[in-house]
Design goal:
Number of strands: 0
Distance between the termini: 26 Å
Shape: elongated
Order of helices and strands: HHHHH
Oligomer: single chain
Radius of gyration: 19 Å
Largest sheet: none
Structural class: mainly alpha
Number of helices: 5
Length: 146
């Protein structure tokens, strides 16, 4: 596997995306602490009382960004891994992975910083293009075997 340039590129971009998801989780925790909005009563009690067992719009925004990452990055991890096994052009594959990664980073920044529309939806849409491309190529390569 380590000799597969496409898989190594996929591994690099996937790791960047996983680290980005960890950063969003940390940001969510920090916003919870700053806003004193805890999801569990025991956390609220530890940080001032049950009145802090509540929702907050800023925390919910972070949670939605994280949830959106899970809905999009997990399928990318599957598609990219299988796509890497199809022996695609390393340059084309790298472009697929790069576009998805940059699109997801811009999407997260737009989500968390509440950037003007349609920044977030454009980033989302652009990031979906390589996923659809990889899915189509996987289907074309595997159709003879169904």
């Amino acid at each position: 596997m380590m000799e597969n340039k496409v898989f190594m590129s996929f591994t690099f971009y996937s790791t960047i995306l996983i680290l980005k998801m960890y950063v969003v989780a940390i940001i969510t925790g920090q916003v919870r602490l700053r806003k004193k909005a805890f999801a569990n009563p025991e956390d609220a009690l530890r940080n001032g009382g049950l009145q802090y067992y509540r929702e907050d719009p800023d925390v919910e925004r972070c949670r939605r960004a994280h949830h959106n990452d899970m809905e999009n990055i997990f399928p990318f991890l599957f598609l990219g891994a299988i796509y890497s096994l199809l022996d695609p052009s390393p340059t084309v594959a790298r472009i697929h992975f790069f576009i998805f990664c940059v699109g997801r980073i811009i999407h997260t920044i737009a989500y968390l910083l509440q950037l003007k529309a349609p920044t977030r939806s454009v980033a989302y849409s652009v990031a979906q293009l390589p996923c659809f491309s990889m899915a189509l190529q996987i289907l074309l390569a595997t159709t003879p075997y169904w």
